[in-house]
Amino acid sequence: MIALEKAINPLLDDNDIIGFSFILNEIVQECKNIPKSVAFHFKVDPKKLPQYYQKITTPMDLGTMQQNIKEHHYTTVQAFRNDIEQIRINSELYNGPAETSQYTAKAAEISALAEQMLEVCYEPHPNFNYYYFGT
């Protein structure tokens, strides 16, 4: 019965990375649900925008992040946060600031939502430079 419950709810798993990955995936999914955010769901197609990869040396998108989550590449909140922020940085570098680019404004919205959801799920540890799962 316990095994079935763990299969249904990954947050019950004894392996912390399973629960952590589940939460991160939920955050990315919510970011993908933001209206008109599809430009950030997948890698930029180099055939459609060949100059993109000349300007952007550290590409990142929500689909890549989901793959990283699936493969358990994120072991800290900060690593996840860095990739979300990289999406916004890349958009600003390529499209211009949020004040003049609808793409960068949307990337900033994605970043803000992810940050808001992280704050709900995690809280800073008072004595260390990392986050722990809030209870």
Report on this model:
- The protein is mainly alpha-helical and 135 residues long.
- The protein has one domain (20-123): Histone Acetyltransferase, Chain A (Up-down Bundle), CATH 1.20.920.
- Helix content is 56%, strand content 4%.
- It contains 6 helices and 2 strands, in the order ααααααββ.
- α2 packs antiparallel against α4.
- The chain is globular.
- Residues 127-135 have low confidence and may be disordered.
- This is Bromo domain-containing protein.
- Residues 32-102 form the Bromo domain.
Largest β sheet strand count, sense and barrel closure: 2 strands, antiparallel
The unreliable regions are 127-135
The top-level CATH class is Mainly Alpha
Shape descriptor = globular
- Domain count: 1
CATH architecture: Up-down Bundle
Q: SSE order in H/E notation? A: HHHHHHEE
Q: Could you name the CATH topology? A: Histone Acetyltransferase, Chain A
> Which homologous superfamily in CATH is the superfamily?
Bromodomain-like
Termini distance?
24 Å
Instruction: State Rg.
Output: 16 Å
Quaternary organization: single chain
- Give the strand content: under 5%
Q: Please tally the β strands and state the result.
A: 2
Give a short summary of the structure.
Keywords: Bromodomain. This is Bromo domain-containing protein. The chain is mostly helical and 135 residues long.
Question: Which helices and strands appear, and what pairs or packs with what?
Answer:
Layout: H1 2-8, H2 16-32, H3 52-55, H4 62-70, H5 77-95, H6 102-121, E1 122-124, E2 131-133
Antiparallel strand pairs: 1-2
Helix pairs in contact: 2-4, 2-6, 5-6
